[in-house]
Design a protein that fits this description.
The chain has 18 helices and 15 strands. It has 578 residues and is of the alpha/beta class.
Length: 578
């Protein structure tokens, strides 16, 4: 006989851990390009959160089983078989392999880097589940706080660990929704990630209570069913309202100054988007000649615009030889071939610059005049006479693209690397002038690292005065038009909102863009096509809380996550040793 107040006995229902995790990862993959169902990102974490909020990963209607479940939950990781977290890890590995599928395209040797990066990123999946369960079960932190804290903390960790991996944060899925991304000016892109996970957690808790109601579980609560989802909806409404208010403060920029209106401080900047696919292979002088001439033709077209641009911008890697070398270069150039490169450069570019009296910002390989052995990925500014007047050396190098760990110390690694010697790291920021405005240059994936861009803008303004806009030159030809271009554009959009400044992107193979301080795309280049974007930049004068306090909240979340992870792992190792 069964007690009247107790539902019929039923076997505990073991949650399909791997399949729930894989479902969550699949929905996340669909939320980002190339599919881009952005709305899915608000619900994609729900299956994973269900694993977090369900003690012992089981659903049961039996009172004794429920009590056993609560007892085992007092040790959220040591009471769970190791295979549970291996399942989460494998699901995460599949997600990151499919997300970063473009890494090995330039060279077969990069398959190792692709696998290494995916495995590293997959570690965060079991970390998310175990630390969140620790906070909920052992520390009694409400789920609506614990899960967002850990998820956001993990994003902060991966943006800082090693050289940082700031792409494909959850908030980046919303990069084409201006109303939703305005909260990034508070605490960075982390702000939106936190709120999105709050929403997902609220929806998960509601579905969990509906399941308990259907099963007749005595732990069902009407309060717990309605309060979390209503709180989630209220947060979403607040995000939209805040977004609308902030968008109204940054009206859509006009394509060009209106007649009869006083001329504001502005600069007309020509972004030259080339389209050369890139692989790790020796480049011939003929190929260099062809690329320079094609780039020069696009530049000639831009210089003929009325009025004439105040600055021409070429993408990263526009000139494949060392522009300021005499006899040494990455392709074994002799003194004679170096002179040929110089003559090509002078004919194709310096002549037009002098004729139209316009400076040039170009991405090139260069050497530090004070250190002949150091090669840099640089943004060089040339004046109207073709003289180098400013240099910015890239500070955030791309692993397996610009450096291979330990390659400089281990000759065997260097011999296996298709890129040869590692590039050197720059140490100083610089600014360039275009008409009446000052711009802060960055190179390639530096804009995927939010704290680097914040430090750049704050430091330059403290030393030199106002920075009116940002410009990123990048060579995304490595990725053959894949979704990596969209991931990079999403990062650039968030940097514009966080800094509240116009952001120009000049990209080989795309996606070049003029992004306004509200994160709206004013102009955008095509994918894997040549194009010239003429951008009229008028400084907004806006500011943001993020520029003042930076990553402080997410840093706190990151430290909490790391401390809890250490406690969880220590507990696990202690149990294994007994």
């Amino acid at each position: 006989m069964t007690a009247p107040d107790e539902p019929l006995s039923a076997k505990p229902t073991q949650l399909p851990i791997f399949w729930l995790a894989l479902l969550s990862m699949s929905l996340l993959w669909l939320s980002f390009p190339p599919v881009g169902f952005a709305w899915l990102a608000w619900l994609a974490p729900c299956p994973l959160i269900l694993l977090i909020t369900t003690p012992s990963f089981t659903l049961t209607t039996n009172r004794e089983d429920a009590q056993s479940e609560q007892n085992s939950a007092t040790h959220p990781i040591t009471s769970v078989p190791r295979r549970t977290y291996w399942k989460l890890f494998f699901a995460g590995t599949l997600y990151w392999l499919t997300t970063f599928y473009f890494i090995p395209i330039p060279h077969p040797a990069l398959f190792g880097g692709w696998l290494a990066v995916s495995i590293y990123m997959a570690v965060y999946t079991p970390m998310l589940v175990s630390v969140s369960r620790f906070l909920i079960i052992r520390c009694h932190v409400p789920s609506m706080l614990a899960v967002p804290i850990v998820w956001t903390g993990i994003e902060w960790i991966r943006c800082h660990f090693a050289t940082g991996m700031g792409m494909v944060c959850l908030s980046h899925s919303q990069y084409l929704n201006p109303e939703l991304i305005q909260v990034a000016d508070l605490f960075g892109a982390y702000s939106l990630t936190f709120l999105m996970i709050c929403f997902s957690t609220g929806m998960t808790l509601m579905l969990q209570q509906l399941t308990l109601l259907r099963l007749g579980h005595r732990q069902f609560s009407w309060l717990r069913m309605f309060v979390p989802p209503l709180s989630s909806v209220a947060m979403l409404v607040a995000v939209v309202i805040y977004g609308q208010v902030r968008l109204n403060e940054f009206p859509v920029a006009a394509e060009s100054p209106q007649e009869g209106q006083p001329r504001a401080r502005m600069a007309r900047i020509a972004l030259i988007q080339t389209s050369f696919d890139v692989v790790f292979a020796k480049t011939t002088l003929e190929e260099i000649d062809q690329r320079i001439f094609e780039t020069a033709q696009l530049t000639q077209s831009a210089l003929q615009a009325e009025p004439t641009p105040d600055l021409v911008v070429w993408p990263e890697g526009s000139f494949l030889g060392y522009i300021d070398s005499i006899s040494d270069g990455p392709y074994g150039t002799t003194e004679e071939s170096a002179e040929n490169l110089r003559s090509i450069w002078n004919f194709a570019m310096i002549g037009p610059l002098q004729r139209y009296d316009v400076p040039l910002l170009a991405g090139v390989l260069t050497k530090d005049p004070q250190d002949d052995g150091a090669a840099y990925n640089a943004a060089l500014t040339f004046d109207e006479q073709g003289r180098i007047v400013d240099r910015y050396f890239k500070q955030h190098l791309v692993m397996f693209g610009e450096y291979v760990p330990f390659a400089d110390q281990v000759p065997m690694i260097q011999s296996l690397s298709p890129m040869g010697r590692n590039l050197s790291v720059g140490t100083e920021f610089s600014r360039i002038k275009a008409s009446e405005l000052y711009l802060a240059p960055s190179i390639c994936f530096e804009t995927t690292v939010p704290h680097l861009i914040r430090r750049q803008i704050n430091q330059l303004e403290a030393e030199n005065g106002t920075i009116d806009a940002m410009v990123n030159i990048t060579n995304d030809g490595w990725f053959f038009g894949t979704s990596c271009l969209d991931f990079h554009l999403a990062c650039n959009i968030f940097r514009a909102v966080e800094m509240r400044k116009d952001h120009l992107v000049c990209a080989n193979t795309g996606l070049s863009a003029h992004i306004d301080p509200a994160g709206r795309i004013v102009k955008r280049g095509s994918r894997r096509d040549t194009e010239t974007l003429i951008c009229d930049v008028v400084p907004s004068g806006g500011s943001s809380l993020y520029r003042t306090i930076g990553d402080l909240p997410s840093r706190v979340f990151g430290y909490i996550t790391l401390v809890c992870w250490a406690i969880v792992m220590l507990s696990w190792f202690r149990k294994r040793s007994k």
